[in-house]
Structure formats: C-alpha cells, structure tokens
Please model this.
Amino acid sequence: MSGQDGNVDIYEQVMERIEAALASAADRNESLQGVVDALQEGLEHYGWTGIYLVEGDDLVLAAWNGPEATEHVRIPIGQGVCGAAARSGRTEVVDDVSADPRYLVCFPSTRSEIVVPIKDGERVLGEIDIDSDHSAAFTVRDRRFLEDVAGRLSELLVTLPPSD
Ligand code: SME
Model:
C-alpha cells in the first residue's frame, strides 16, 4: 500500500524530496519541474501531475509529469475544475469526474481530480492539478499535504523571478 491514509511516511518522504529539489534547482522552471516530478513519482495514486500559473485571465501549464501531455495547456480562469479553483481560491476535490459538469476531459482514464490553489494571501498565483485513474483517490491527507506544498510554492513564486 502506498499513498493512502495510514501510510503517512510516504508523504514525509515526498516532502523531503521536494525540499531537496527546491534547494538544488537553478531557477523557477527547474523548481516547478522538481516538485511535479517528486509528486508524480512519489505517490502511486497520482496519475498525472501539473502546475499551472496565472497569466492575465488564464492558467498556463508551467510544469507537468505523467504518461501523456495534455491539450489543456491554457485554461481560462472560470473554466473547468482548474478554472473554478483559480477563481474561488479554494481547493477542489472531485471524487467522480464524470458527475461534475465543470470537468474538462484530459485523459479518458481519469476518474478523480484534486486542484489546489497556490496563493499569496488572497491572490491566486497558480495551482497544483492532479488526476487519478482511481475514483475518490484523494483523501484529507492528500489535501492537507498538497496545501502545504502549495504554501511552499507560493514562497518560491514570490521570491524567484520567472525563468526566461
Ligand atoms: N481536468 C481539468 C483540466 C486539466 S487536465 O486535468 C490536465 C479541468 O477540468 O479543469
């Protein structure tokens, strides 16, 4: 078993890997890539992991790791589950994507999704988006963990300038 409630050590290990990746990254892009790599490779129930950043009225995909690229590299704020989380500034957990009319399909195998805003105060800077091939894959532990990761990313984004 890995990545489910009851096995908290795996989350601590992934957080350590994130800290190490951030400490060794040369710039913002490498930092964001290190975070998505640690999440995607460290937690078995994460099927695709991306970080979107706010650019004007859109979310733009800045880093991802998973079996396939997504066509949704730019999502208007307000559209999809991603756009809803960016507009409200609140985490979205969708246990069954087929039952959520907001859901924008990326991968036919996806069953559930979590989107966690990255915020500086009330301002949304971006978000972490994770898809799973399992229904209701994301627990309260995932939510708390990813909100901690988002807090770490917020510090990074306000201190590190965009990469060229
Ligand atoms: N499913 C998302 C779109 C992004 S893909 O999951 C990578 C949504 O509904 O906003």
In short: The helical segments are 9-24, 28-42, 80-88, 140-159. The mean pLDDT is 94. The first helix runs from residue 9 to 24. The chain has four helices and six strands.
